[in-house]
Structure formats: structure tokens, C-alpha cells
Amino acid sequence: MDIRRIPLSNTNEIIEVEVVHADYKGQVAKRINEKMPLATVKGFRKGQVPRELVEKQYGLSIKKEEVKKVAAIALERFLANERINMLGTPLEIEKEIFNWEMENIIFQYEIGIVPHFDLDLEAKAGLIKYNIKADDTLIEEQIERIQKRYGKKEDQEIVSEGCDLTGTFYSDANNINNKATLPLTAFKDNQTQELFIGKKVGDVVSLQTKGLFKDDHQLMDYLNIAHDNVHDLDITVDFTIENISSSIPAELNQELFNQLFGEGEVASLEELKEKIKADSEVQFAEQSENKLLDDVVNFMVSNHNFDLPKEFLVKWMQTSGEKKLSATEAEAEYNRSEKGLRFQLIEGKAMAQSNIQVNFEELKGFTQNLIYQQMAQYGQLNPSDKEIEGIIARVLSNQDEVKRITQQVASDKLLNQIKEKLNPTVKEVSYPEFIAALYGE
After folding, report:
1. Which residue of 149, 153, 162, 277 pairs with 134 in a disulfide if CB–CB is 3.0 to 4.6 A?
2. CB atoms within 10 A of CB 428
3. Closest CA to 7 of 112, 118, 117
4. Using 50, 70 and 90 to split pLDDT, how confident is the model at 146?
């Protein structure tokens, strides 16, 4: 047996495994002996077939099986002994002509190797942690939405001021076909709103997207298009009216307060505003934290430049999943996942250099929060402590789940350590200012 490493680059190698006759002859002979009593050849009784005929009939296929086994085991042991830190798994290099009659058989396997790089956590990142405040305008808009949502809706025959419209935005040339409901006042200017006045269900109104809404980002929701396409978008879309309605706003009284927040939780308009402000800022804090963590990931990736074996990984992706991919599909998948892979390697190096420990209480706390979130999605907002404890016990009795949760908790702790190390600047902003920062505007 002879195994050689053939470098192609600092992240790509070929492992060449040469299987010699002595490596497999004993097992092949054993398999032939096992075939002897069972072999059937015309002109001979079962079990009486001469050995040379059995070898001729079964020898080559047995040799192929045994040689492949020997090569695979040798490769696995070699990689473990060499402690090669690989990306993906070895890919056998298929040969157009493979002479199985030779006594010595050579196999070649291509591998991708984790690149070497130095971890830098001392760089000046210039990161910002946004402290998003709910201002009076946002609170008033939220109250208006609440009144409208819980008010009385009435279908109308024609569009008039203050109506809500349901319909479909359509542009065949730009692949837009999206149903939406919006107030007439969502349109930025009066001239656009007046195009709808007097229209009926089934009527079609042609609109120019440039300056159509007060905020270009609303095009993302109403037309279902990507953020990169919304700015300065100047096309014509048709809006087909499918429903016209008006609403009588709900009164801001105790009955509405109880319906929104539970019995006696809010007792006045001022308390309603305080509740909206507090709840909004809790949600904003989560959004701000998510953006900061995204910024940390982006900075860490951009600040650590290293090569990846792209060509190898594209080939590996073609066959590694449940669904086989074409070369074009695999390259697109690589491009989508490259940033995540780079950060995964950075995170792995940082984890190896850290002393992060995860205790049982942290596992339990993470699991509990996860359960609360999942139950809330299904409308179970007030589960009992006994019910939660039972689910936690079941989850943490599964070793695979414990391993997965431990990795997630450790990863979260590491990311928070990196975030603190990079020392972001705190900046107080309104929600619209945060949205502009979120999209890099």
C-alpha cells in the first residue's frame, strides 16, 4: 500500500492511493472459495465447477469490490492519521479508462482543505448599536392602525376618499403579480389618489412606480419585489380593483383596551400610548440586536481574507445533497453560502481559542425560550409551568438535541463575546432612521 499527497494549492490536494496485489489477494481468494460450492456453470454439477472457471466468472467483480474496500479504508485511516482539516468530503477522480486487470490499482481523490488564517479581534470595526425610540408619530400611527383594524368595515361600490383597496399589482414585463390591501392614503400624492376616485370593482388603474408611495420600501410589500430593486424603480404597473371598503374607526374605550391587552391592563389613552411605546421598543431592541449581529458577521468576514477551494466545493455540492445539482446550480448554491461558510470557519477558530463553557441552566433557559416561542406561534400564549417543565425534560433527554442546543448556546455566547470585543458605538434613532440604516441608505 502506498499513499501520497499531491498539493494543487494551499486549499486543494489530491490523495493518491495505490493498492498492491498483497493488499487484496487474500480476501479475493477467500471470496472465491466461498463461491465454489454455490457456483453454477453449464456442463457441471453445482459445487463441482473447476476453480479456474469460478475465477473467470466471478473473479473480476470480486476483485473490484475488494480493491475498492481496501482503498476506502486506507483513505479514511490516512486522513485521520494526517489530521487533515477538510472542507466537504473526498471526491474520487473518475478515470475514463481503468484497467482492473493490473495487479496494482491506483485511485485518486480530490480534497478541499480548511485554509490557514490568523484571527483578528482587535480591529477597529466602526460598528453601531442602534437604540430605537418609538416617537410620537409612530405611536399615533399605531393607534390609528388599531382603530382601523378593530373598527367596522363596510364594502363600497365605488372608491371615495378614505377607502381601503384590495387588488392585484401586475406587470408582465417585470414579473410582478401580487395581491395587496392598502389604504388609498398609502399613495404619496393626491393626483395618484384621485386616479381611483369613482372607480369600481374590476376597474384597472395604471400607475408609475417612481414616487408611488411615501416610502420606496413599501414597494417591497405591495409589489413583492426585492429591496435592491425598489430605489428609483420607474415602471408602469396595473392595479386591478377587487374590493373596496371603508371603515368606521373603533372607539378608544375600556372595551377596546381590554380586548387588546387583557382585563384592566390599560385604563386610559395615556396608558395605551405608554404600552405601545414599551412594546414597540422591545421589538425594536430585538431588531437592533439582529442587525448588530449581522454587522458583526459581515465585518468579521470582510476583515479575514483567505482562499477557499471554490472549484472543489462546487463539484462537491453537485453530489453531496439529496438532490443532484448541475454545475450551474452548484455554483449558484456556493455563491449563496460562501459568506456563511467563511464565518463558520472564523467562528470555529475563535471557538477553539476561547474557553466558552455551557452549563445546564443555560441549556434549560435556551430550551425554555425556544418552547415559549414555538407555542406562541400556535396560539398557546399561557402554558403552565408544569407543561413547560415536562417539555424541557423530554427535549434534554435526547442526546442529539442536547448536542445541537449546546452548540447553539456556545455559538451565541461566542458571537456576543466578539460583539463586545469590537466595542460598537450606541446611537439613538427613530424607527425610520433605523430602517434607512438597515438597508444602507
Report:
1. 277
2. 9
3. 112
4. very high
Using the structure block, give the residue that is written with the C-alpha cell 435592491: 228
* Residues 6 or more apart whose Cβ sits within 8 Å of residue 354: 414, 417
196-199-202-205 Cα dihedral, nearest 10 degrees: -30
Write out pLDDT tens, residues 83-92.
999 999 999 9
Q: How far apart are CA 227 and CA 218, in angstroms?
A: 10
CA distances 120 to 241, 298, 329, Å, are: 57, 14, 34
Residue owning grid cell 404619496: 188
Per-residue confidence (pLDDT) for residue 441, from 0 to 100: 66
Please report, as a single letter, which amino acid is at residue 211: G
Closest residue by Cα to residue 134 from 430, 427, 426, 433: 430
Which are the contacts of 242, defined by CB distance < 8 A and separation ≥ 6?
A: 166, 167, 168, 179, 201
Those residues whose C-beta lies under 8 Å from the C-beta of residue 436, and which sit 6 or more positions away, are: none
This model's pTM is above 0.70: yes
pLDDT tens for residues 34-60? 888 888 878 788 878 888 888 888 889
Cell (9 digits) for 402: 442536547
Q: Integer distance in angstroms from the first to the last C-alpha of the chain?
A: 62
Residue 359 and residue 410: Cα distance in Å, rounded?
10
List, for residues 277-300, the tens digit of each pLDDT value.
999 999 999 999 999 999 999 999
How far apart are the C-alpha atoms of 256 and 141, rounded to whole Å? Answer: 17
The set of cell numbers assigned to 113 is 482543505
**208 and 236 Cβ atoms separated by less than 8 Å:** yes
The answer to whether residues 118 and 349 touch, using CB atoms and an 8 Å cutoff, is no
Question: How many Å apart are CA 312 and CA 107, to the nearest integer?
Answer: 17
Exposure of 38 by Cβ count < 10 A (0-12 exposed, 13-18 middle, 19+ buried)?
Answer: exposed
- Smallest CA-to-CA distance from 53 within 66, 64, 41 is with 41
Cβ proximity of 293 and 415 under 8 Å: yes
Q: For the segment 186-202, what is each residue's pLDDT rounded down to a tens digit?
A: 999 899 999 999 999 99
Lookup: cell for 149: 383594524
- Grid coordinates given for 383: 402554558
Q: What would the grid cell of residue 363 be?
A: 441549556
